């Protein structure tokens, strides 16, 4: 919720598009909430949720993307 308007936010206020790229980053990554630290577990969930962190190659090769995600989440 936007504290000023009370309306539902469409994007997380900490999500920032990288300049000159079609990629996004979390600007509070090291201090992100616990829910964010444990999300996502499945590429399928990221697709269902319309996650902005997905890249075109992830959509084209979801099994490979899942392997990369599993590795990333195991090191968090
Ligand atoms: S990881 Fe959490 S805090 Fe960071 S951009 Fe995504 S939703 Fe926002």
String of helices and strands? EEHHHH
Task: List bound small molecules.
Answer: iron/sulfur cluster
Number of domains: 1
Q: Strand sequence of the main sheet, in spatial order? A: 1-2
- Which descriptor suits the 3D outline? globular
**Secondary-structure content class:** mainly alpha
Q: What is the count of β-strands?
A: 2
Mind telling me the C-alpha Rg?
Answer: 14 Å
Largest sheet: 2 strands, antiparallel
Notes on the structure:
The protein has helices at residues 34-37, 43-49, 56-60, 62-74; strands at residues 15-17, 24-26. It is mainly alpha-helical and 76 residues long. The chain has one domain (15-74). The protein has a two-stranded antiparallel sheet. A hairpin with a 6-residue loop joins strand 1 (15-17) and strand 2 (24-26). It is globular, with a radius of gyration of 14 Å. The N and C termini lie far apart (28 Å). Iron/sulfur cluster binds at residues 12, 14-15, 26, 28, 32, 36.
């Amino acid at each position: 919720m936007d504290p000023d308007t009370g309306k539902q936010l469409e994007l997380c206020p900490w999500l920032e598009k990288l300049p000159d790229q079609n990629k996004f980053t979390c600007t509070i990554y090291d201090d992100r909430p616990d829910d964010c630290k444990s999300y996502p577990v499945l590429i399928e969930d990221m697709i269902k949720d319309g996650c902005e962190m997905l890249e075109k190659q992830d959509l084209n090769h979801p099994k490979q993307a899942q392997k990369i995600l599993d590795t990333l989440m195991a090191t968090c």
